[in-house]
Write a structure and sequence with these properties.
Strand content: 15-25%
CATH topology of the largest domain: Rossmann fold
Number of helices: 12
Distance between the termini: 88 Å
Oligomer: single chain
Order of helices and strands: HEHEHEHEEHEHEHEHEHEHHHEEEE
Number of domains: 2
CATH class of the largest domain: Alpha Beta
Helix content: 40-55%
């Protein structure tokens, strides 16, 4: 009898054990979602990184104040990689292993993205909206990666065509000696071949270089009629001032890295062009026609004590799309449910008037055109809102 009682007790104990808990999604708890970014807050692209991070944080804060996403607060973890590859690799590893984030968002710059993206994707993390126009952000497609910006190659193809149509048949270029510069160079060469243009001279420089007098003289002496750059704000300013100091009066056009407000505010940059898959919004001019966008700018200024840049707008938009997808994914948040929630959005209408973001189909691609901007009177103007390529 005693043995039977023990057996019955054992059976009862087994049948009353709690059911195994559902496996917890990495970076997701009952009340939080961890999302990380690897960006530049203190290096050559800090003007991009700080603004984009502000925009993302603003949207995530709004979601948190409203009660979170399906009852969870978004914990936004920011790592400063100073636009240096070794630091970017360490930052990504920290987010994956120590912070154990759920997803990455808006990792900044083509070289840093190319350095960390494969390891992050191989580890199964969603890689949302890299803040780069590099080809590798979209080609080949990957089920865990969502690109956002039109690539540098096709943007520069559009810019070269624009100035070729206006008489520039001999062109030259100066680009950074990195992945970003290589893709800008590829677009310039592709357009020149297709349009029958002559590339008279070219040059490459390290991101840390600051002296361009000799390089500019070589480019000028080649007979070049339009100079194209693969630069960010700092080296674009140095090259452009050297061009004008040499008495060389040709169009100078950079890729997207130079499209920031401080460039236009510099009197020496009058006439300078950029080609980018976005443009700078004049928030004062649109107050009557787009009051909600102007009110958003007021809130941004109140929060950060600075005017919003296009990078802040892009960051906010990226975060807004992400919040919508998190909401659509429901309370049972997993990597598959999140990635399925983005295509369900379909076409995202940019609240700031930018290009529609297409999230459906095999590419899951975002914006599909670029714009030409020019510095006039201390501000960015938009002579060509769409650049066909």
């Amino acid at each position: 009898m005693k043995s039977i009682a023990l057996l019955l007790g054992a059976i009862f104990a087994l049948t009353t054990l709690p059911e195994p808990a559902q496996a917890q999604t990495r970076g997701v708890t009952s009340n939080s979602i961890k999302i990380g970014t690897v960006t530049d807050l203190s290096g050559a692209l800090a003007s991009w990184g700080v603004s984009a991070t502000n925009g993302i944080r603003m949207r995530f804060d709004e979601a948190n104040v409203a009660g979170g996403v399906n009852g969870r607060r978004i914990e936004f973890i920011v790592e400063d990689m100073q636009y240096q590859i070794p630091i970017a690799i360490k930052a990504a590893d920290k987010l994956m292993t120590s912070d154990k984030v759920f997803a990455f968002i808006s990792t900044l710059g083509t070289p840093p993205n190319n350095a960390i993206m494969k390891s992050v994707l191989d580890a199964g993390f969603p890689y949302l909206f890299p803040l780069s126009a590099g080809l590798a952000m979209s080609e080949p497609p990957h089920p865990l990666r969502l690109p956002f910006l039109l690539n540098d190659r096709d943007t520069m193809r559009g810019a070269v065509k624009y100035f070729s149509d206006r008489g520039a048949k001999k062109i030259c270029y100066q680009v950074m000696a990195n992945d970003y510069g290589a893709e800008v160079e590829a677009g310039i060469k592709s357009a020149a071949e297709r349009l029958g243009l002559t590339i008279t001279a070219s040059g490459k420089h390290r991101p840390t270089e600051t002296e361009f007098t000799a390089a500019v003289l070589q480019l000028r002496n080649s007979g070049c009629q339009a100079l194209f750059l693969g630069t960010v704000a700092r080296d674009a300013t140095q090259i452009y001032t050297a061009v004008r100091a040499a008495g060389w009066d040709v169009p100078v056009v950079s890729a997207l890295g130079a499209l920031v407000p401080p460039v236009a505010e510099n009197p020496a940059m009058e006439g300078f062009y950029t080609a980018a898959p976005f443009y700078i919004i004049d928030f004062k001019a649109i107050r009557a026609t787009q009051p909600k966008v102007a009110e958003w700018a007021d809130r941004y200024r109140a929060k950060y004590n600075i005017d919003p840049s296009p990078q802040a707008v892009i960051g906010y938009t990226m975060a807004d799309v992400t919040v919508r997808a998190l909401q659509n994914a429901g309370r049972d948040l997993t990597v598959p449910s999140l990635m399925a929630a983005f295509p369900a959005i379909g076409i995202y209408r940019d609240p700031f008037g930018g290009p529609d973001v297409k999230l459906s189909g095999a590419k899951h691609f975002g914006a599909e055109f670029s714009s030409l901007s020019q510095v006039k009177g201390g501000r960015w103007t938009v002579p060509a809102p769409q650049l066909p390529f």
